[in-house]
Design brief:
two-stranded antiparallel sheet; EreA/ChaN-like  fold; alpha/beta
Amino acid sequence: MANWISNFTSQPDASTKHIRPLENAEDLDPLLERIGDSRYVLLGEASHGTHEYYTWRAEISKRLIEEKGFSFVAVEGDWPDCFQINRWIKGMTDSEVSIKDVLSQFKRWPTWMWANWEIAAFATWLRKHNKHLEQKKKVGFYGLDVYSLWESMEIIVKYLEKEDPDTAVLARQAADCFEPYRKNDSYVTAYRGLNQKCRNEVVQLLTEVRQKTDFYENEPEAGLNAELNSLVLKNAEKYYEAMASFDSSSWNVRDSHMVETLNTLMKYHNAQSEHKDAKVIVWEHNTHIGDARATDMAAHGMHNVGQLVRQQHQDEGVVLVGFGSYEGSVVAGSFWGAEMKEMELPKGIEGSVEKLLHQNGAKDKMLIFDDDSPLKEIFEERMGHRAVGVVYDPHHERGNYVPTRLSDRYDAFLFLDQTQGLHPLHLKPDGHQVPDTYPFGI
């Protein structure tokens, strides 16, 4: 760590020329320049419960959509729930339905990740942006995750029974195959016993649905919805089965699924685009979007979304943007399924990315890791970088730091010195106020 400090202090222009102040949306200009014509921009977060991570990602996304024509936002959320947001922002729902009604459908723990006022504000902006655009040019909002096994199954069975009775037979067979295991479903409960028959049923269903996506387009994106729900069924089975092995395989299955979903969405939007030039913004935790090869994840046989997207799409332009903060508060649970609460986010520990950037000046700032920047070499040194999950205990803080080569893990990094917990939609009568980001009168 002494080398880091020595390198940093020996290059005084690093803190003025290459570490930029971050106070408003105009300060994002260097990041927009770094993104250039890239078609994949992945925006991270160091927790799932921090107000500023959501609002800064929203500001970056707005500029990318307005100035660079990005096609859709894909997030670390379940496909069925996020597809309802997508339908709302594209005006495909009853005009009387509010964004609060839509977000209230997020009932799977941790609900605060997407059922919050920050998302309500961004979704309302997207709806306004889309209002006067033709359908195929409207910006979408989709979930990439694999957890919605039962919801996806119910949706696809009901849809196919109405629209395609022959394929509905396959869907019902797949549903019947999974039904004995439904009572064991949770984010953390692995189950054994799913035989090859279940997988075969779902793969056959997915194949059939993919061949008929054009046939299903009796309403906008109906075929896409059917295909992606089928993909969830296929990979959810693999995910839960992998969890029973208690190794890194379930992580890899999950992140591989998110990239497969992302690739499916890009293929769909390229087909919709006259020039086949679709562009995507991804919102996920740093542990997903930061390249796993720059952390200790690789040593444990783990890959992630950022690594896979770089490997598969680097020629099309990929920019990974990490986030972090020094101290404040965060919304999380004390254990899996626990009641959400606002917790203290302690000061960054000695030797961490967060502590060093705080010592450089207790202000928000942005780092761009261009190849010719001295920051590239300085931050190639390994140091701790905080990662807070939906389960968090501030009293065991040291266990939340991931050994990281920051300038290899990300192409840019937004440091926010002090942050606060986000604002869940499901408010309690405890004096918690609606934030300024939501002025829409819900």
